[in-house]
Design brief:
By secondary structure, the chain is α/β, with parallel strands linked by helices. The protein has a domain of about 190 residues: Glycoside hydrolase/deacetylase (TIM Barrel, Alpha-Beta Barrel), CATH 3.20.20. Helix content is about 40%, strand content about 10%. The relative contact order is 0.18.
C-alpha cells in the first residue's frame, strides 16, 4: 500500500489543503471532544427507539447509540493512554497518508455531520436489520458494509480495545470449532498484547484496524483521521509484517468525510448488523439469555459484533457457533467481506 510520491505532488496537495482551510471546506471541530465516546455510549436506548426506515425521510437515518462499537469505563482509561502516545508522535503516518494521494479538498466538501450506528430498528421478513440494509444502500459507495450478502452465511467479528485476559480462550474456542473471525485491534491492544495479535495471524484470522488513538473520528479533520488510521496501519505492518484492509470506527461513530478517508486509504469500513450490551466488564449479561439473543438474531449475511472483554461471550461462544450452524448457516471467512 505504501507508494512514493513526487515533490511536485506533495506541493500540490499542500496548496490544495491551504485553499480548503481558507475557504472553510474542512471540518473545524474541537479536539477536546475526542475520547468522549466511551461515556456517551453508556446510554441505553431501547431498540424500539429507532424509527422504521421505511417511514423515514432519507436524511433521517437511524440513531442506535445504545449499542456502541466498543467501550467500557476500563477501556476509556486504556484508550486514553493510546491517545497520549498518538499526540507524542504526531508526525507518524503523515508520509503514508501523503503517499496514498487522498483528495482532501474533495473530501472536505462532504458532510461532517456526526452519525452513530448501533444497530437498531425493526427487521424484515428475513430477520435482517432494516437499518443495516438502509445504511448499506446509503453508504455503499464508500465501501461501507453494515450487513453481508443475502445468503446463509454469517460473520464473526470482535472488537479489541484492550485485553481483559479472555482473548486466548476465545481463540481456543475458534480453533476447536474451525471458525475464522475478524479482530479489530487498537494500538493499545496491539502494543501490549503482540503475542495475541501474532496468534490471530498465525491461526488464519483477520486483523482489522480499529484506529491508533481510539478517538471519535467525527471530531477529526479528514487529514487527522487519515494520519491516525495510517499510524495504526504502519505499526501493524512494521511489527507483524501484516497489511490490514478492514477498518471499524471507534464506537461506531462516523461521518461522510471519514468514510471517504477510509476508502481513499485503501480500506473498507466494516460495521455490524448485530451487537448487544456485552462490554461492561462489571455488569455482564446472563449467559443463557445472551446465547438465545445472539442465536435468535441469525439472518442472511449477519455480521456479529462481540466484545472480547466479555466473560459471557467467552462462556457461550462454542454453543453459539454450534447453534447457528444447526440453524442452517455457515460461518464465513472474513477475508470475503
Amino acid at each position: 500500500m505504501k507508494k512514493r510520491f513526487s515533490l511536485s505532488f506533495l506541493a500540490l496537495l499542500m496548496a490544495a489543503a491551504l485553499i480548503a482551510s481558507l475557504t472553510g471546506c474542512w471540518s473545524d471541530r474541537d479536539d477536546s471532544q475526542s475520547g468522549q465516546s466511551s461515556s456517551q455510549s453508556a446510554s441505553s436506548l431501547p431498540e424500539s427507539s429507532v424509527p422504521d426506515p421505511s417511514s423515514m425521510p432519507e436524511s433521517d437515518l437511524p440513531d442506535a447509540s445504545s449499542i456502541p462499537g466498543d467501550d467500557s469505563s476500563s477501556q476509556q482509561e486504556e484508550s486514553s493512554e493510546g491517545s497520549d502516545s498518538a499526540s507524542s508522535d504526531s508526525s507518524a503516518g503523515e508520509g503514508s497518508v501523503a503517499a496514498m494521494g487522498a483528495d482532501f479538498q474533495e473530501i472536505g466538501a462532504l458532510s461532517a455531520e456526526s452519525l452513530d450506528w448501533g444497530p437498531g430498528g425493526p427487521v424484515d421478513e428475513k430477520n435482517r436489520s432494516q437499518g443495516a440494509l438502509l445504511y448499506n444502500q446509503k453508504f455503499g459507495d464508500y465501501d461501507a458494509l453494515f450487513i453481508g450478502p443475502e445468503e446463509p452465511v454469517v460473520y464473526l467479528t470482535f472488537d479489541e480495545g484492550y485485553e481483559y485476559g479472555l482473548t486466548g480462550s476465545i481463540l481456543d474456542t475458534l480453533k476447536e470449532k474451525n471458525v475464522k473471525a475478524l479482530f479489530f485491534v487498537t494500538y493499545d491492544f496491539a502494543n501490549r498484547s503482540g503475542e495475541l495479535v501474532q496468534r490471530m495471524i498465525d491461526e488464519g484470522h483477520v486483523v482489522g484496524n480499529h484506529s491508533y488513538s481510539h478517538k471519535n473520528y467525527s471530531t477529526l479533520t479528514p487529514m487527522e483521521a487519515a494520519e491516525d488510521l495510517m499510524k495504526m496501519h504502519d505499526f501493524v505492518s512494521d511489527q507483524f509484517s501484516y497489511e490490514m484492509k478492514y477498518f471499524r470506527f471507534p464506537s461506531g461513530n462516523f461521518n461522510e468525510q471519514s468514510l471517504a478517508v477510509v476508502q481513499q486509504l485503501g480500506y473498507r469500513s466494516i460495521f455490524w448488523s448485530f451487537a448487544y450490551k456485552d462490554w461492561l466488564t462489571d455488569d455482564q449479561p446472563e449467559p443463557e439469555a445472551s446465547r438465545q439473543k445472539v442465536v435468535s438474531a441469525v439472518c442472511p449475511g449477519n455480521i456479529y459484533l462481540l466484545h472480547a472483554v466479555s466473560s459471557t461471550n467467552d462462556q457461550i461462544l462454542g454453543q453459539v457457533i454450534d447453534d447457528i450452524r444447526a440453524a442452517g448457516y455457515q460461518w464465513g471467512d472474513p477475508n470475503n467481506l
